Structures are given as structure tokens and as C-alpha cells.
Amino acid sequence: MIAFGPVPSRRLGRSLGVNNIPPKVCTYSCVYCQLGRTIQMQIEHCAFYEPEEISKAVRDKVERARESGEPIDYLTFVPDGEPTLDVNLGREIELLRSLGIKIAVITSASLIWREDVREALMKADWLSLKLDSTREEVWRRINRPHRTLRLVSILDGMLEFAKVYRGELVTETMLVEGVNDSDDHVREVADFLVRLKPAVAYLSIPTRPPAEEWVRSPIEEAINRAYQILTERVDQAEYLIGYEGDAFAFTGSVEEDLLSITAVHPMREEAVSEFLARARADWSIVRALINQGQLIEMDYEGRKFYMRKLDGRPRR
Ligand code: SF4
Questions:
Q1: Chain centroid to CA 146: how far?
Q2: Burial, 219: exposed, middle or buried (Cβ in 10 Å; 0-12, 13-18, 19+)?
Q3: What are 179-206's pLDDT values in tens digits?
Q4: What is the block-wise mean pLDDT of the chain (316 residues), using blocks of 10 residues?
Q5: Closest to 4 (Cα-Cα) out of 73, 96, 78
Q6: Residue among 19, 38, 80 to mutate when testing ligand 1 (max atoms within 8 A of CB)
Q7: What sign results for the dihedral spanned by CA atoms 91, 97, 98, 99?
Q8: Contact 43/146 with Cβ under 8 angstroms?
Q9: CB 3.0–4.6 Å: which of 4, 181, 261, 272 could bond 218 by disulfide?
Q10: 126 C-alpha vs ligand 1 centroid, how far in Å?
Q11: Cβ distance 240 to 172 under 8 Å?
Q12: Is 81 in the pocket of ligand 1 (CB under 6 A)?
């Protein structure tokens, strides 16, 4: 299906998905990919569909959504493979412009060293680039790239692109236990992000069945440490741990609000105290959530933090 949704997305509101790549053609075969192993690995640009076919499928979906009163905040290229393999990506974005809806692309950035790919991506309003590692051997282990790709060219391409891009650029780093979740490794990723300056650096974890059975999400403490290391260096970091609730909308329920905020970033003890005071509530609510296994309390560098308990952690 070329167009799907709209579906709720924490980062993009209500997002209508554009699937411009057939399953599963990719430049990578990430160990955590929720689409399974890559069927066709390639780096050559191709025309998979006619741009007009994509445009028509999206227009029809938008029309139907409008008829039923469903709002759409973004048209998002989030295909069953790598969207920048599509030689017509730039043209498709241009064709969709007249719908008057912002356009997002979620890419591995594996082809961003190509000038034509950077030109196509420049047309998007919002862009998410994958950055799981800045170390060659870890990148090979986690993303399993096409053998001709070079990490250094990708990182250089990202920096070059970020210098001139006028839209909103974010990054996504997927943490896999024992592969890229050590403090040293996260520090190196953070050092690169300091140079890239994304609007938000997202940390994510595998919450759906991964391509490889051995893949596991780090434990909450490791995710919190990674978050703290990132926020020491970058302006804004958040994590994506599988909850699509809106952390910034207050529902009036203290429990629900605490859980949705801590699904995005850990809260310091002082922040929780402040939140409880504003809500005219006390710590018994926090204790109850901990006892129910919904919230966990952690220590990091002598301070206490609270984080929503993960429940989507792939198990062996
Ligand atoms: S880049 Fe995306 S689609 Fe390709 S293998 Fe990795 S997670 Fe899957």
C-alpha cells in the first residue's frame, strides 16, 4: 500500500504514511529492523513507482481523511525500506506540496553522501536521520550496511547537509543492549551530535519483534545513563520507548500525566516534587506506581530519577 493512515505519531502528530519503496529494499539490514532481514540490499538509485502514482495514492487518502474530518499534520515518507533509494523522491515531495501539508522523511542517512540525495531531502520540512554509532565496527554490527558503504562518508554527508538545511532536523539512535549502549559509546555519539546540532536527539529502543532474535533493549538504567550523557552535551534529547501518548498535554490525572512525561524523558526527584505540588498530590501516588511496576526509581550520579517502566522489551 503506497499511502496509509493517518496514524498517531508522538513526534509528528497525525501522520499519513507514504510508502515509496517496496518491501524490503534497503541499504542496511539492521539487526533490530521490525520488517525482518533485508530482502534486496542495494545502494543504486531506482524508480520504484511513477511519481504520479504516489501522488495520486496520497491525494486519494488525504481526500478520504478530510471527508471524514480526520486531521493530518504530516505526510511522512516512512517506507518498507530506505526512502532515499527512490530516484524520484524529490519530485514526489514537489508533487505533494500542493496539498498544503508539511512533509517529513525518516531515513537511515546511508546515502546522504550523495549530492542528489541531499538535494531531495532539502525539500522536506522535517527530517529524521539515523545515527546508531560513529564507530565503524559497531555500525557494521548493528546496521549491517551494504559492503560498499563507508561510515565516514555518511557522517561527513550529515554534517554538510545540516549546515544548509532549513527544515527541522532530528536524529534517532537505537540502543541495543551490549552493542551500542555503553557510556563510552554513547559519549562518542553525543560528541558527533554536538557538531550536527539536531533540534532533538531521540533515543529509541527495539519495542517490536526485531530481525534478529538475540536483539534486546537495554535496561532502564542504561537508557537513563544514555539520556543523561546526551543532555549534558545536546540542547534537547528525548526517548522513544514505544508510547505514543502526548507528554505535553495534561489530562488532569496525576498518574497518567506522570507516566506520559516519564515515557519521554526521566524526571529528577525535584521535578517530580514540583509536579506533585502543582497537582496538589503527594508522593504516595509515585510509590503506588512503583509498587504496581509502572514506574521505576533509579540513581544516577547521586541523584534520583523516575522513568516509566518498559514493557515492550524484546525477551529471548
Ligand atoms: S534502515 Fe530502516 S528499513 Fe533498513 S534495515 Fe534498518 S531499520 Fe530496517
A1: 22
A2: middle
A3: 999 999 999 999 999 999 999 999 999 8
A4: 88 93 95 94 96 97 92 95 98 98 98 98 98 98 98 98 98 98 98 98 90 93 95 92 62 84 86 90 95 91 87 46
A5: 78
A6: 38
A7: positive
A8: yes
A9: 181
A10: 19
A11: yes
A12: yes
End-to-end CA distance of the chain: 32
39 lines ligand 1 (CB under 6 A): no
Can you say whether the dihedral through the CA atoms of 177, 183, 189, 194 is positive or negative?
positive
pTM for this entry: 0.90
Distance between CA atoms of 191 and 133, rounded to whole angstroms? 11
Please name which of 126, 131, 109, 128 lies closest in space to residue 118, comparing C-alpha atoms. 109
Query: Please, which residues have CB within 8 angstroms of residue 159's CB and are 6 or more apart in sequence?
Result: 195, 196
Query: What pLDDT, on a 0 to 100 scale, did the predictor assign at position 311?
Result: 67
Which residue has 496514524 as its cell numbers?
7
Q: What whole-number distance in Å separates Cα of residue 73 and Cα of residue 80?
A: 21
Atom of ligand 1 nearest to the CA of 38: 5
Rounded to 5°, angle at Cα 178 from 174 and 181: 45
Cell of 189: 555519539
Q: Indicate if ligand 1 lies below 6 Å from the C-beta of 29.
A: yes
Bridge partners (DSSP) listed for residue 126: 104, 168
